Amino acid sequence: MSENHDFDLIIIGAGSGGVRLARMSAQRGARVAVVESRYLGGTCVNVGCVPKKLFVYGAHVQDELEDAAGYGWDVPLDSTRFDWPTLVANKNAEIERLNGIYGRMLNNAGVTIIEGTASLKNANTVVVGDQSYSARHITVATGSWPVVPDIPGKESVLTSNEMFYLPQLPKQAVVWGGGYIAVEFAGILAGLGVEVTLLYRGELFLRGFDTDVREFIDQEMRKKGVTLKYGVTIESVESEGAHYRVHLNNGETLTTGLVMAATGRRALVDGLGLAELGVEFTDSGHVAVDDHFQTAVPSITALGDVIGTPQLTPVALAQGMVLSRRLFGDGQGDMDYSAIPTAVFCQPSIGTVGLTEDEAREAGYTLRIYRSEFRPMKYTLSGRDERSLMKLVVDDGTDRVLGAHMVGPEAGEITQGLAVAIKAGATKAQFDATLGIHPTSAEEFVTMREPVA
């Protein structure tokens, strides 16, 4: 490794992918520095997966209290009280603990942490403040940032970033968007007692997920009191004291205490100076890279949300592993983006892996579809009107299971196990030959015998 530079590798961004790349590269003997302007751990740890899941847990407590009566517990629901600032403070303390863990992991690996905002002076030099640092390789791992459409009153619209530090919970909220962030926050707010209206410009939210899943979660969210409005978008927002008037493109006006936009994210490359150095961008504004994370500039690579691959922490982690191996290992390794499992932590939650039914048909497969809907056993005594959905998409020609989809409690936990089987190429016959764990919801995946289509 060259001694003509301060470092072998400088990584801009200490999110999931950047930290993994830094640690693995340092363990391979590289001299590594990470530049971070905000917080260690990136979006996932600070304003993404981790605090969101903590809020989801908080939103489920009311359901647990209500269900207790069916199991003989006398819980006086009229005297229970939820305190939002307490949840936020406890969440903040946990995030600070994780920030410290990330710092110690980097330090223990021998990685230099540089605090500040980075820009590129040239293809091998990063400037932070009044200091310049040279490196043989530079990796851009700056992630993405929420986008609020340019409408009158956009300054009154919050994003997921601000929601994690909201000082008080409103009585009503409008959530604008149809992706997983919008659906998750609508569920969180509704679970905490907020009257929620979810607006989406399309015909049905969660585009890209299996149609049965999308239609099923639509009905389940309505049961929980979320008002869903499709085919509409916000034209303007007016501030009126402690409230807001939201003007929709269909002429309707809503009055609410909070407006949150979950309308997409953009690559966070402001001020880096990448274009000036010859780094190219895709039509969507992401850093353009080849299959090995290489940009148009030989010394500059990029990974994670900034390159437009699936915006999931495990994807960025895997990319960090592959890139470290290519830069400082045996030079081999490729990313496999097939059958990536994912979850949406709405209420009830969604877990999915592999092809949707529509994707499989478009790919030319002749399919057998297995689907089951039922009330989870837990709710038979509590009386809760919530149902679960499980679905398998099977290639009729080979019997291989192409996709598994679920809506219901602990869907993410169950889907993670199924992902191993689908990645390994399991057939429906092998699912059938697997004994279920009884009584569980998960056993339904190995007991569905008759195709529905």
What does this structure look like?
The protein has helices spanning 16-27, 42-47, 49-67, 84-108, 160-163, 180-191, 211-223, 274-277, 313-328, 357-362, 378-382, 411-423, 428-433, and strands at 7-12, 32-36, 112-115, 118-122, 125-128, 131-140, 144-146, 172-176, 195-200, 227-230, 234-240, 243-248, 253-256, 259-261, 265-267, 300-302, 342-344, 350-354, 367-374, 388-395, 401-407. The chain has 453 residues and is an alpha/beta fold. The strands form 5 sheets. Strands 1, 2, 3, 4, 5, 6 and 16 form a 7-stranded mixed sheet that branches. Strands 17-18-21-20-19 form a 5-stranded antiparallel sheet, with helices on both faces. The protein has a 4-stranded parallel sheet with strand order 10-9-8-14, with helices on one face. Helix 1 (16-27) links the parallel strand 1 (7-12) and strand 2. Helix 3 runs parallel beside helix 6. It is globular, with a radius of gyration of 24 Å. It starts with 6 loop residues before the first strand and ends in a 20-residue tail after the last helix. The model has no long low-confidence stretch (mean pLDDT 97).
